[in-house]
Design goal:
With 242 residues, the chain is an alpha/beta fold. It has one domain (6-240): Metallo-dependent phosphatases (Purple Acid Phosphatase, chain A, domain 2, 4-Layer Sandwich). 36% of the residues lie in helices and 18% in strands. The chain contains 10 helices and 11 strands. The chain has helices at residues 32-42, 63-75, 86-97, 100-105, 108-115, 119-130, 159-164, 167-170, 207-210, 230-240; strands spanning 11-13, 22-25, 49-52, 79-82, 135-137, 141-144, 180-183, 194-197, 200-202, 212-217, 223-227. It has a 6-stranded mixed sheet with strand order 1-5-6-7-9-8, with no helix packed on it. It has a 5-stranded mixed sheet with strand order 4-3-2-10-11. The longest helix has 13 residues, at 63-75. The termini are far apart. The relative contact order is 0.18. Manganese (II) ion (MN) binds next to loops. This is Serine/threonine protein phosphatase. It comes from Psychrilyobacter piezotolerans. Residues 21-198 form the Calcineurin-like phosphoesterase domain.
Length: 242
Amino acid sequence: MRLNRSEVMNIVKLKMEDYDRIWVISDIHGYHDLFLKLLNKIKLTAKDLLIINGDSCDRGPSSFEMYETIEKLIDGGLNIIHTFGNHEDLMVNAIEDGELFAWYRNGGRQTVDSYKKKYEILSKHLKYIKNMPMAVDLGKYFVVHAGINPQKTIEEQTSYEMTWIRGDFIDHPLLKTDKIIVYGHTPNLDGKIHFVDDQKISIDCGSYNTGVVGAIELKSMEIIYENTHRLNIYLNQHFKKR
Ligand SMILES: [Mn+2]
């Protein structure tokens, strides 16, 4: 929760016109099968950009496979940027500083299990994770894991705010920026991407609860979803009975 490492402070600035399509996926949480299914639908080319907006690890079964696949796709020449999520923060703090309690309480056990003692690969992934940027500034859109502090300009945001903020951002309709914030972190328990207001696109489809991961393309606003059978189970338990 401390998150004061200077290497994760950076915001990557990119131009939308440099890419054919800009897809954003968030909060995959170890559901590597859903990630592969989405990639299969998207059919990413070297002219596209894919932003994976934090929280690829924890809760779901295949965190190791997530980072391994992402590194291979990048090595293969695809433009993929993974922003730093609060679960990447929990993971780094647990492994480097021994803060295991917070991590295990939030699904870190599944991440440890997925590595199955492959410690060399874990330290390679950790190097990648620690160098993830905090956000991607696309001009019109600002892609960030948790959101921004509405009382501050983009330049004044801290890494902690961009990784962990929740209610103070979501419940605040007025921002000190004209940009449209594309964010995850706070799950939509109906398993859908939400256009919350003129400046907020909420894309965490709650993979762990709903079984859904969504993706949005920022030029066309095309939205696609992949889900497991868990969505139906979840909806039956939480919505249909009432
Ligand atoms: Mn998350």
